[in-house]
Amino acid sequence: MTAGSDSVPELLPMVFADPGEALTRARALLDADPSPLDASVAHQVIGIWQRDFGDLRLALSHLRRARQYAARADSADREADVLATLGVALVHAGRTREGLAAFERGVARGGGHTRARVLYRRAYVWWVLGHHREALEDVRRAIPVLRQAEDVIWTARALTLRATVHLALGAVERAEADFTAAEALWDTTGQEHDKADAVESRGLAAFRSGDVPAALRLLDEAEERYARLGTPTFMLNIRRCEVLMAAGLAPEALAEADAAIGKLDGIGGQSTRKAELLLAAARAARLAGDPHTAIARAALAVRLFAGQRRTWWETHARLVLIEARHAAGRGSGRLVADAAAVAGKLAAFGAPAAPEASLLAGRIALGLGWTADAERHLAVAARSRRSGPPLARLTGWAAQALRARAAGSARGVLEACRRGLDVLDDHRMTLGASELRARATEQGAELAALAGRASLVSGGPRRLLVWSERWRATVLSTPPTRPPADPELLSGMTAFREIASRAEAARMEGRPVPALEREQRRLERQIRSRTLHMRGETPGGGDRFDVGRLLERLGDEVRLVELAVLDGRVQVLLCGQGRVRRFEAGLLADAETEAEHVQAGLRRLAHPGAEARLPVVEAAGRRLEELLLGPAAAHLGGGPVVIVPPGRLHRVPWALLPSLRERVLSVSPSAGSWLRARETAPPPDGRHVLVRGPGLATGGAEVPELAGRYACATVLEDDEARVPRVLEELDGAALAHIAAHGTFRADSPLFSSLRMADGPIVVHDFERLDRSPYRIILSCCDTALLASVGADELLGLVTALLPLGTAGVVACSAPVNDAAVVPLMLALHKGLGAGLSLAEALRDARAALPGDALHQATGWAFSAFGAA
Which intervals hold domain CHAT (predicted)? Predict the structure, then answer.
């Protein structure tokens, strides 16, 4: 390209069509001794590139030179255009006053079409600063002129900006109309970066309307588009953090925000974006239960926003700062006043976050005993319960529940909690991925706790049971949305298995595996991302729990023990003989500590020579019984017992507790889940499947003998034990026994796995089954380990199977001795062959083992889940 070329003006739109090519051509133009007018364009192009994708200091240097060349060329429109670009850069650098002054000069210098472009960019700056009404006014003035000039690119940009401002003000329908109009215009252009931005903006609109899966899908699509252009995505990082937080993935949002801040600092990027990322990090840290990190991030964000004269943003950062201080245990009249002041400012701005601030002021005031002040603030927050996106309505119902509690109305508390949780149910069922459904329940934890306390006061044990079930293991109440027949997802799963298998082989041979591990993590992220895009298919929130139906099914012999937790103490709800009784036991925190001691003891006992630890483990079991069952232990009767623990106690080896040791004992995530398992009919064909994975210490020694007992069983071992074939045979089987190494992934529970010949079979694989086996036995270590997430949800192998048609599972929650497992499994199958249930057969199998410490510990480590 040479100076004076007719194609020089094309460089400016090229910055957002092909940024790298635009930068290369602009530099080449400057090397060719251009005219002042062309030099102005080239420096402006480099300035835009550096402003949006690189070093802001370099951007300012190039833009000032661009203005000098424009003045030398004596082109008022050229100078006005550069002044607008410079104004945006100055504001992003935190020099707000200078930036707005540049716009004043630009508006004055430009005329007609050029002035409209300057007004559009000033509208963008008003949006960055949080001055939404001013932004709407400028863009209102710009759009008709741009349309009249048939300027498709700038009209589409202006419509996209107006839609974004509408979203900030909560006007989702207006935003969607503008986004639709802008997208139609973008389709007629080659502006690839602008098109990616439009996809990103549609993701934000989907999020604001409550469609989290669509938001995640669109943001991922936008990221792929940006990656092809080689441009950074800081605004996208901020928006994805918002969506991740709403989905209950706050730790991931915090990691993404912090990583983006580091990258932005590394290139000397925009100060405005850094402040926004700090705000996102502060919100994420607070939601992740790290108030001190939240305070540090929010305080820095407040300072940056104040220096940038961004009052709207500063006010939002102050809200997060107050929330974090309250979460850290601070409560004072000053904090109430600060929250109230923030609520007033947000309301004046028309910000959707205003009810959150009023709820916070009311909550702090309640903690101080200031009921009149609390009522005033909570009444304002409660107005949001009638309209808006789900999480905004949830805020309103939380405020209404707190109002009722302050007024002493247990009925009012329960009604508000019911309505609020119904809203969250509807939102949760739009999520297709079981992980998102589970994590989303965290939003209802406060309502569930309020309802639990109120039901205990007003309705006794039966009502407490209903509310305990209302928000326990809700993910298991309906089958998950099946992953689609997505070629990319399926090929990703195949590649993941291959890489994981190669990495495992390399570890066993002592070869380095960092590159393989990096690729495995990349594939895991890809698979998880595509599953999170799934939208829910099941309307409503699943079956409502019926106490009468439960008691009828239990009859006179079976006892179901549901453990609820109120204010940190275990409440034992003993169900059976047509009634529900309540007993108070110990502190949950003490029980968790004791359970960890028991796990450590069982790990020691899995190795020969640790017999001296047996009395210690048994003593810990007695302490656990006192903490978890208390006086209820004396009222269990002589029949079978079903234990329904809270999620945080999923690792307890219940058979170790003295009063449960000799019983027919099963465990269930909820009473409703047990009922569904009890009423699940076995498949008609009665197929048996035996699977033996590679690398077992005993070689899966029980499998050949079991194959002899089940003459018609399908046996998959060696090269036949490959994931596709295993899944095919498991689908709809009556009984499956899988002897394979289990790996529990606390960091990503849906990648917990069983090792097959061609690599791991993971929870995501099981969720693709039309119907999982009616009964399934997992004979190796750690197969019953689960991750406690959300309000009271569990993610892992066992809970993946229960909603898919599995009525009973036997699995292990601790490391065990492989050799000692073999006789336990053979005895278990002997009982099944005699017509016993899994729980009955497991009890008899424990009793048939040798009496030494190693075999006893092995028996205690296994549990029967469900009701088959």
Answer: 619-861
Residue 476's pLDDT is 65
Strand-by-strand arrangement of the 559-566 sheet: 579-587, 569-576, 559-566, 641-644, 665-667, 862-866, 808-812, 775-778, 735-739, 688-692, 714-717
From residue 852, give the alpha-carbon distance in Å to each of 462, 822, 827.
Answer: 43, 15, 17
Q: Which CATH number fits domain 675-866: 3.40.50.720, 3.40.50.1460, 2.60.40.10, 1.10.3720.10?
A: 3.40.50.1460
List, for residues 751-769, the tens digit of each pLDDT value: 888 999 999 998 888 888 8
Query: Which range is most confident: 7-11, 102-106, 650-654?
Result: 102-106
Strands 735-739 and 753-756: unpaired
Q: Where are the alpha helices (DSSP H) in 608-670?
A: 614-628
The tokens 């101080």 sit on which residue?
A: 368
d(CA 7, CA 11): 7
Q: What are the CA-CA distances from residue 275 to residues 135, 269, 299, 394, 702 (Å)? A: 20, 11, 10, 28, 61
Kindly state the percentage of the chain with pLDDT values over 90. 61
Category of 388 on φ-ψ map: left (φ > 0), alpha (ψ -120 to 50) or beta: left
Separation between Cα atoms, residue 540 and residue 529, nearest integer Å: 25
CA atoms 392, 394, 395, 397: torsion sign: positive
Q: Which residue has the tokens 């309209």?
A: 387
- Residue among 508, 542, 300, 302 nearest 421 (CA): 542
**Mapped to the 3 state alphabet, what secondary structure does 318-333 carry?**
HHHHHHHHHHCCCCCH
Q: What architecture is domain 1-110?
A: Alpha Horseshoe (1.25)
User: What is the Cα–Cα distance from 251 to 257, expressed in whole angstroms?
Assistant: 10
Look over the chain and give the mean of its residue pLDDT values, rounded to a whole number.
89
What is the Cα–Cα distance from 788 to 652, expressed in whole angstroms? 13
Give the dihedral sign, CA 51/55/56/57.
negative
The number of residues in the chain equals 868
Q: Is the dihedral of CA 657, 659, 665, 671 positive or negative?
A: negative
Question: In whole angstroms, what is the distance from residue 396 CA to residue 462 CA?
Answer: 28
State how beta strands 569-576 and 579-587 pair: antiparallel
> In what order do the strands lie in the sheet containing 753-756?
742-743, 753-756, 759-762
- β 742-743/753-756 pair status: antiparallel
What's the pTM? Answer: 0.81
DSSP letter (8 states) at residue 431: B
pLDDT at 459 over 80: no
Classify burial at 167, counting beta carbons within 10 Å of its beta carbon; exposed 0-12, middle 13-18, buried 19 or more. Answer: buried
DSSP H helices, 130-269, are 132-148, 152-168, 172-186, 192-208, 212-229, 234-246, 250-267
Q: What are phi and psi of 643, to 5 degrees?
A: -100, 130
Kindly report which listed range (301-310, 522-531, 823-832) carries the lowest average pLDDT score: 522-531
Of the candidates 471, 472, 453, 451, which has an alpha carbon nearest to the alpha carbon of residue 401? 451
Among 806, 813, 808, 801, which residue's Cα sits nearest to residue 862?
A: 813
In the chain, pLDDT over 70 holds for what percent of residues?
Answer: 97
